[in-house]
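Two proteins follow. First one:
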Amino acid sequence: MATKSVPARETTMATHAINITKGGYCSESKTFQSLRPPATPPPPHQPLSITHFVLSLLHSSTVPTTTYLNIPSTGQSLTYSQAIDQICSLSSSLKSLYNLNKNDVSFILCPPSLHVPILYFSLLYLGVTISPANPLSSNSELTHQIQLSKPKIAFATSQTAHKLPSFPLGTILIDSPEFISLLSQISKRDTSAYHVEVSQSDMAAILYSSGTTGRVKGVSLTHRNVIAPIAVFQESPAELDPNAVTLLTMPLFHVFGFFMLINAFRCGKTLVLMERFDFEQMLKVVERYRVSDVPAAPAMILLLLKSDLTNKYDLSSLRRFLCGGAPLSKEFAEKFKRKFPQGYGLTEAGAVSRMIGPEESNRHPSVGRLNPNMEAKIVDPLTGEAIGPGKRGELWLRGPSIMKGYVGDEKETAECLDSEGWLKTGDLSFFDSDGFLYIVDRLKELIKYKAYQVPPFELEQLLLSNPEIADAAVIPYPDEEAGQIPMAYVVRQPGSTITEAQVMDSIAKLASFYL
């Protein structure tokens, strides 16, 4: 499970300060620096696990009665006080009963439940690497992931355990009476007998991602990779509202859900977990729990804009949508009566940029400004030279949240991480003169039409502007004369009878309008 580690730069703000423009561009180094106030993560040499770090940030006034987790489908809930007791108990129980050691890997195949966050924090406390996977994965996908991560133990449910092979320390069912008993083995918060000194450079998680190619890879994240971006959010007063209620619809094995779970805990927020996504059920949950914040993908935003179901429920508590996963077009963003900020991140880099406040949120279709301690450059894919504001190229990133590498794949690691710690994202991007980042498309997905490079995203947004189209995807199709031409897959709105010819005609009219 060896990875090729490269040096990560904590910050370079002071190095070229005299040459930095108002947009954060340094003409000498040809890099873009964050314009946010600098954050101060703990010193890298300080022994510290993710669990220790978030517990140190949690205010004592939050602990007794504030709800940490709600599960609408079962009506179950967990307060912060109960969560901390269970973390302490489970950590001690796992250490004493199963002889788990620091840097052992645990494979986790569990749908969302009250127990999954407790399991994450308990294993991280012990220095055990967590490797969560999609419970719906095929057998071949799971086999590949297990070959990459080489786990010693697994955690599953009675519905998912049959997908797993045997492991040296076995498989523990988190919905079994035996596991439930492990959550209450000790009556006080004393884990000193099982204390494990965890270095921030130790591997914390292996999250699975397609990276810059379609092949699934195991992204190795250290405790430092997670602590550093969490410390960035800790510096923002807007993130510390104790009355906020966040609805988490994305899976906990995904980097977005993983980070949101941890970030909510460190500031005492209430989380509502949905076991599976259902649009109308989500609206009911927003009304019932008075949800204020929803991390969302653009597809969910489109559903909210186009569905008549939103008129049936009281959604007045909603105030923020944290939109990520893909850019949200200006047309759709402007249809919101409120300002819902976007952001940009990757499994390999964590949270890279975001919008803060209504004024920044008007910069469509930007994904915001660089987060503190993050450094970027735009590289011309043809020449390999770094270029300045307003010019499109591949986005490269450097900072303390950049992954350690891909487990078991030194070749892929070397291809996307250079010797100076720059992560090559594969995203075609540019910065404007004010330091706002724009993601145009994936470099590998650009359609090569004659001498032009056509971003599929822009064509998809034109298709989605049609009220009779629910969703759309555009891919390149081989053409002898042009090289490639765009081919679209379209999902009609329920009840729509729009035809292929009508879709093509509407796009032709829109294209002539823009041209």
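Second one, unrelated to the first:
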Amino acid sequence: MKPNLITKITLCGLLLNGIYVNAQKTNLEVNIANTITKIQPTMYGAFFEDINFAADGGLYAEMIKNRSFEFETPLMGWKQPNSDKHSFNEQSGIATTIKVLENKTNPNFCRVLVNDDKGFEIINEGFRGMGIKKDARYNLSLKAANHNGAIKKIIIQFIDRNKKVLGETIIVPTASDWQSYSAQFTATQTEAKAQLKITFEGTGTIDLDMISLFPEDTWKNRKNGLRKDIVQLLYDMKPGFLRFPGGCIVEGRTLAQRYQWKKTVGDVDKRETLINRWNTEFDHKPAPDYFQTFGLGFFEYFQLSEDLGAQPLPILSCGMACQFNTGELVPMDELDPYVQDALDLIEFANGGVETPWGRIRSEMGHPKPFNLKLIGVGNEQWGPQYIERFKVFEKAIKSKYPKMTIVSGAGPFPEGDYFDYGMQELKKLNAEIVDEHYYKNPLWFRENATRYDKYDRKGPKVFAGEYAAQSVAIASPDNKNNWECAFSEAAFMTGLERNAEVVNLTSYAPLMAHEEAWQWTPDLLWFNNLEAYGSANYYVQKLFSTNKGTDLIAITKDGKPITGQNNLFASAVKDVNTKEVIVKLVNTAATAQEVNVDLKGSKLASKGTVITLTSPNLQDENSFANPKKISPTQSELKLKGETAKMSLPAYSVTVLKIMLK
């Protein structure tokens, strides 16, 4: 009995002690007058990678899959239901593809043979269907060569799974040679899984290419542009930079499959389709129909950066294929074309219209330079092979563009031999910014809020370029965008912000995912063919980004930073433009915490605004059914003198904003 009695007394004491501790108010002090360092405008940004159907089928609003018949299987995405290949004499028609070898970028086109006038049809399935909205207008375009005027009419229709027509238009092909045609039609009802049916009237042969379909209502109403709802979510974050075109997608599984920016600019119909490196990467979610048409190319990325008010940050291949795949290397004596690509990209972004690449930018509709200041060499390469290649790039870029800031990489992990070697060598080279990546469990993020406290203030600056808490494990298909992951990232972000002397750029990754066509989870934004929403993690990112301030100031308890003591994390800034002081508080405890925030060193308004992001359940998530289940609420707080008395809910992220007098 005695051991049990002692255990009960001890437990009772611990419980009472816990209640006593929780009943105490934590006193925090904010020194408004003393700026520690400036917060960089790039502190919080967005990292776009074409994974999870983020470009084709996502941000890029094209609705036709395989519009120019250039996929590995040329008719992938297309069906011809009334073509009987087993009885050629009786079939109503057949669609095949023809390859024109002298056309290097878009060699295939579709040849349709119609044997009778019964209405041969081909159907495009879209990207897991096509999302159409009632009364919305859609713009269709195609190229056709109507041999001998054989086809009298092309009927284009939206259909649902029951073949019901949901809108239609007609094109009359008038020329025997290639000619472009366009039409607009209106959807008669909303449908997430529509398809496009094309029916031919007449008998004979017609050739088709670049069959394209876009909603009229795109971001900034640009013709054949970006999905408005997705860009709006990005715009609302006010990102300081946009990193593109990705991470591993830059490298490619092989060097032949690497991202080559020069193939993604100029006329859209002349951009060369490429297999997406994520299409069969994961056994848990193969996507053999995942290709890159590059309708969303480098010009469009620069343009999007400008739209978002974000600095563009392009990442280029350094001559190393993904080391998790082939690890193929360009020999050092054959590296020049890769280096020239980097120099030419800077000219494309910043050169005058009299320069070769500046002229191409101008001809695409942007005579003014894009004001590129940052460029990344390699993604997450590691080892001596990366360092020796980085040196060549750095020398060439700095020789021609001495003011360009170069981002280097420290490998795929935040610790270990690869990381240690990379950081050691990059420090020797006086690297300007080093990209660090962390995909770890939620506890790691809470325990590493002090990661940068002891980083050398005179060493390389840090780009926290890819991070996301993994609820299960890295690359697990069972990872969730749950609330524990989100507030754990917030706790970590207070540490990033507290160390703004070292940390200059940060971005969550990956940015977005299609509800049905994802490969990697978790992701910041989710979309289907009709809707898009922000995860709980998105609202954390948005809270920090829209409240980043201009000057870092100290918030302490007993003279020490708040880095997880009693499950409390904090950072503070002031904004000299909006004349505000902004305090971020993260309570990772299962119980509410009472805090007094003493604000010293400046006169303040008597009232402040409190923005709270919280949920009682660690596993809670936003969803299409409940997209704002975890989203910010706002309230008013009256100060008592210089003190803000606050109750922080369990599992919460709180932002306090007070105007300076």
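SUMMARY FIELD: The first strand starts at residue 26 and ends at 31. Confidence is low (pLDDT under 50) at residues 1-23.
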